[in-house]
């Protein structure tokens, strides 16, 4: 079998408008694509470096490039798990290995893993953080969608924001993501406002290093860990503080670890959510396999872009369909 060649690219994809969370706003998605080729078949994986975890675009691209000698000497997906740390760089390579294996075998990834064929699922659609009036206006344009994810976490005003969103979308299921933007002092008031608005889940209300207060509140709706959850080793500390965990491939370091993490989370009694960064369909495609077992799916990254890559996922309002072989897997 021919040695594998590695190609790494940094790509920039404009966002439709801007995307704003409690930590800031951006107008483009910067992704890193890893491509593995044996001269006949090509496998691709896409990741999003995230400054919240100390990652930079240049650092992630360099970390992937640094694996080229090992890959040419026969590094495979299994050994990749111990050679690279979890994170965006390993995610791109892990997913590229899976895609290449599928192309070589002429069989989809779900068959290689032993999973049923994925089906279309309902995904959330994100409403960026803004003033109550601006968020209501944005929500009104998406009020026909089944599931909306509302970004909160700005100092003061979140009760008004979620109330305004609910008025603009009276029939949509609402979930909230505070992106670590609340404090123990405003936690109760903000959660009460979410209950009043009929929110069904709140994601990462407190900073990951200051979330102990969650173990001591009477929760009236499920709390989901995002920034507090990474690989399997992080899960045991979530029990008692969280009811669910948001599995993102860029955090786990790829589909391989994400599947293992999902199984361990279920064993611990944690409900699964599958999430994403703002990225193209190439980053969403592997996560569709996890989405089949998740209570909440948030794979709307391509919907937030001005354009998606060729052969992207097919979205029909809130329904997202499994990838075509030309895209991934």
Could you explain the architecture of this structure?
The protein is α/β, with parallel strands linked by helices and 329 residues long. It has two domains: 5-106, Enolase-like, N-terminal domain (Enolase-like, domain 1, 2-Layer Sandwich); 121-320, Alpha-Beta Barrel (TIM Barrel), CATH 3.20.20.120. Helix content is 31%, strand content 22%. It has helices at 57-65, 68-72, 77-83, 88-105, 109-113, 132-140, 158-168, 187-196, 249-252, 255-267, 281-291, and strands at residues 5-21, 24-37, 42-47, 121-122, 125-127, 147-151, 173-177, 201-203, 223-225, 244-247, 271-274, 296-297, 315-316, 319-320. The strands form three sheets. An eight-stranded parallel sheet has the order 5-6-7-8-9-10-11-12.
Q: What distance lies between the first and last C-alpha atoms, to the nearest angstrom? A: 20 Å
CATH top level class name of the largest domain: Alpha Beta
> Largest sheet, if any?
8 strands, parallel
Strand tally, please? 14
What is the SS-derived class?
alpha/beta
Helix content: 25-40%
What is the correct CATH architecture of the largest domain? Alpha-Beta Barrel
Rounded average pLDDT: 96
């Amino acid at each position: 079998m021919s040695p594998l060649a590695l190609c790494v690219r940094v790509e920039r994809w404009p966002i439709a408008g801007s995307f704003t969370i409690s930590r800031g706003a951006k107008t483009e998605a910067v992704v890193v694509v890893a491509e593995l080729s044996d001269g006949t078949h090509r496998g691709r994986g896409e990741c999003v470096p995230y400054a919240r975890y100390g990652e930079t675009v240049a650092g992630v691209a360099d970390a992937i490039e640094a694996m080229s000698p090992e890959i040419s000497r026969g590094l495979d997906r299994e050994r990749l798990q111990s050679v690279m740390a979890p994170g965006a760089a390993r995610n791109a390579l892990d997913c590229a290995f899976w895609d290449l294996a599928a192309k070589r075998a002429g069989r989809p990834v779900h068959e290689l893993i032993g999973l049923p064929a994925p089906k279309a699922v309902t995904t959330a659609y994100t409403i960026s953080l803004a003033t109550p009036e601006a968020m209501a206006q944005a929500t009104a344009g998406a009020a026909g969608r089944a599931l909306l994810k509302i970004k909160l976490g700005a100092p003061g005003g979140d009760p008004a924001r979620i109330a305004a969103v609910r008025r603009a979308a009276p029939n949509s299921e609402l979930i909230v993501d505070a992106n670590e933007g609340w404090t123990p002092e405003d936690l109760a008031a903000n959660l009460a406002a979410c209950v009043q608005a009929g929110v069904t889940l709140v994601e990462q209300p407190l900073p990951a290093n200051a979330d102990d207060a969650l173990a001591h509140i009477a929760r009236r709706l499920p709390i989901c860990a995002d920034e507090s959850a990474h690989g399997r080793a992080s899960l045991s500390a979530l029990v008692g503080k969280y009811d669910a965990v948001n599995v993102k491939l860029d955090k786990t370091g790829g589909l391989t670890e994400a599947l293992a993490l999902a199984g361990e989370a279920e064993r611990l009694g944690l409900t699964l959510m599958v999430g994403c960064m703002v990225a193209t369909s190439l980053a969403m495609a592997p996560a569709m396999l996890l989405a089949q077992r998740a209570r909440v799916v948030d794979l709307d990254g391509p919907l937030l872009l001005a354009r998606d890559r060729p052969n992207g996922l097919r979205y029909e309002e809130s329904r997202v369909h499994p990838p075509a072989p030309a895209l991934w897997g």
